[in-house]
Design brief:
Helix content is 69%, strand content 0%. The protein is mainly α. The protein has two domains: 71 residues, Orthogonal Bundle (Rna Polymerase Sigma Factor, Chain: A); 83 residues, Arc Repressor Mutant, subunit A, CATH 1.10.10. The radius of gyration is 17 Å and the shape is globular.
Length: 183
Amino acid sequence: MTLDPSVRDAVLAAVPSLRAFAISLCGNVDRADDLVQETLLRALANIDSFEPGSNMPAWLFTILRNLFRSEYRKRRREVEDADGTYAQSLKSQPEQSGHVEFQEFRTALAKLPPDQREALILVGASGFSYEEAAQICGCAVGTIKSRVNRARARLADMLSIDGTEDFGPDEATRAILTGTSSR
């Protein structure tokens, strides 16, 4: 199979964002990498169903999201270190305040309901418009806007943030909380 160079480039350009989204969904880098790999395999196997001129990243994110949901349904009966005690024992505590703040952010992000976390990551971190995120999630634009707004408010509350100046220097994190993109 010969892949059009522009299609190949569009797929490759989306990989970092796909990986970040997968990590936010899974909370596990190894599983996220497997999910991205499976997404790329499925996308390439079904590249004929991609409509030229449409949004390649949105198509790939939809595949990834559907794969994650399928995997989640299969794994929901598994019990893996439910209270996180074992996982915490494997991690070294961060030494710099930026690392501590980022860990606090990740912990708070993980506490958000999955639909809010997903919407926030798509719009705030991955740079999708509300319309594109709604298409990926298969819901109305207003629903995405509401989820993002509630997610931002909950994060700010959990992290005791009154404004962006209260949070660390990380631009990506600041962009998620404020709705401004550094892209």
